[in-house]
């Protein structure tokens, strides 16, 4: 499926698997992206919209006959949480359970050269977060 949502045009890829990821399927997409837009307006983490969009529309990875969504790396989640959790606390809100960073994989978990998670620095040829 092609990504057409205007708030997620910064993604460095253009297709995502269908059906969409369960994290977002349980919520309304607009509410999910509004949450990240709110955090983006608070400027709590420079890549917060990229994190939200990579969850809402994970990159489609085709591996032979199999295809799957490439979810954000745990370190990417932890950086977003570290930046935004204190801001959320100011409005009596905490980092949501559905974004628990332990559910994501670390880029170091696999000796395989294929990417197992998404991080913003991978696109620039720099070290992942």
UniProtKB/TrEMBL annotation:
Superkingdom, taxonomy of origin: Eukaryota
InterPro entries on file: Corin_CRD_1, Frizzled/SFRP, Frizzled_dom, Frizzled_dom_sf
GO BP term, pick one: canonical Wnt signaling pathway
Entry's Gene Ontology molecular function annotations: Wnt receptor activity; Wnt-protein binding
Record-linked Pfam families: Fz
One Gene Ontology cellular component: plasma membrane
Intrachain S-S bonds: 77-101
Domain called FZ: residue spans: 1-120
PROSITE patterns listed in its UniProt record: FZ (PS50038)
Transmembrane spans: none
Keyword Disulfide bond in annotation: yes
Coiled-coil annotated spans: none
Keywords, in A-Z order: Developmental protein, Disulfide bond
Protein name (record): Corin, serine peptidase
Species name: Macaca fascicularis (Crab-eating macaque)
